[in-house]
Please model this.
Amino acid sequence: MTNLDSIVARFDVDDPAFIADPYPVLNELREATPIFLNPNTGQWTLTRFQDVFETLRDRRLGRSYSHLFTHAEVGKPEPDPRWAAFHQHERWSLLCLEPPDHTRLRRLVSKVFTPRAVTALRPALAGFSEELLDRCADLGEFDLLADYAQPYSVAVICSMLGVPRSDTQLLLDWSHAIVKMYELSTSEAVRVAANQAAADYTDYTKALIAEKRRSPDGLLISELVRVEDEGDTLSEDEIVSTTMVLLEAGHEATVNTLGNGMRAFMHHPQEWRRVVDGDVDTKTAVEEMLRWDSPLQLFERWVLEPGVEIAGQTFEVGQEVAMLFGAAERDPRRFAGADTFDAGRGDPAHIAFGGGIHFCVGAPLARQEIEVSLAGLAKRFPGLRLVEEPSYHPTFVIRGLTALRLATP
Ligand code: HEM
Model:
């Protein structure tokens, strides 16, 4: 076994020690090689910032190949019919489309997420945040995720989409079950649950769309329905997928950024002090929360053209390239003192939101949601402390804590 093989063997997403702290192994991988073949997934995997940065923007690769090739043409099996509901639910998701369909749908969705529209939401966000922080203050000791971040981020996205808040728990349960399908290693039971959740969620969304058609409210789903009704090219399936991707993408990553980021602050009390004392403004600190312990650790691309070479490796059409965000975000070639959690770093050009045509459409909203929360926490609870050491969910791609128990003095 070569030295590289032994490091790659430790890139084991089923190993609890790796999940607890993947960064030592990710750092070793990145320093040993810019690219390696993951024997478990067959994916060539990039480790360094510059390669990941460029690959995200490289139009010779895509998040999907089905607009150009059949599964057989790229040597892939047909999708498993047992997971039909899951595949159908993401069929028209922005994350599964390439131009021209991607361009058409993205243009419509982007209209709702302009920086101006997002700034206008700030008072609503602050209202949700205050309400939940009041409850946390009453509790004295609370779980930042269950008592704050989850209800907060769902309230925000539901209020944008026009989904009743009373359905929040249903949506949370479906979203949690579905996103597990994106992990590198999933059990049969997890897939069955994800598929069932996608089916239930689709039925729910279709009923909601029918409701919006009857009584429009000017919010996102209603607006998408209006476009369809005006004879544009948005089909019901497209509206369903768009609604669901916004709820899924718009929720988990924001919650996990708050959890992972506040854990980082609790482990670095001097950095928390800098925020509490106003030496580092909250906008700046949010960028380091996103970079240092990113809530999304791996993304994939399909090679769509011949002649693609990345990090010295030549690819054939239909091959898959994976990008290790956590390794790239700690690349010392790009970030000085990359392993240090420095709230005042102020470098927004990380890749936590991706890059290129799939760059996170919700980034302005996510940044504001996290910033409002951080500001509220710092103002209300300057002496916040960790009650117990938190643990991470046993998943790699979506990196987040099971709970973050905090106490006010
Ligand atoms: C901290 C929170 C968030 C993080 C770290 C994050 C991260 C990302 C990343 C990395 C991508 C690109 C994936 C790729 O290139 O393969 C992405 C895309 C996307 N995100 Fe986010 N996201 C966050 C919050 C949100 C929110 C709040 C929303 C919506 C309300 C949202 C909606 C989307 C959508 C729809 C896409 C697909 C865009 C496209 O394919 O054109 N995200 N996000």
Observations:
- DSSP finds 18 helices and ten strands in the chain.
- The pocket of protoporphyrin IX containing FE is lined by residues 56, 63, 94-95, 106, 157, 245-246, 249-250, 253-254, 257, 295-296, 299, 352-354, 358, 360-362, 365-366 (CB under 6 Å).
- The two ends are 52 Å apart (CA to CA).
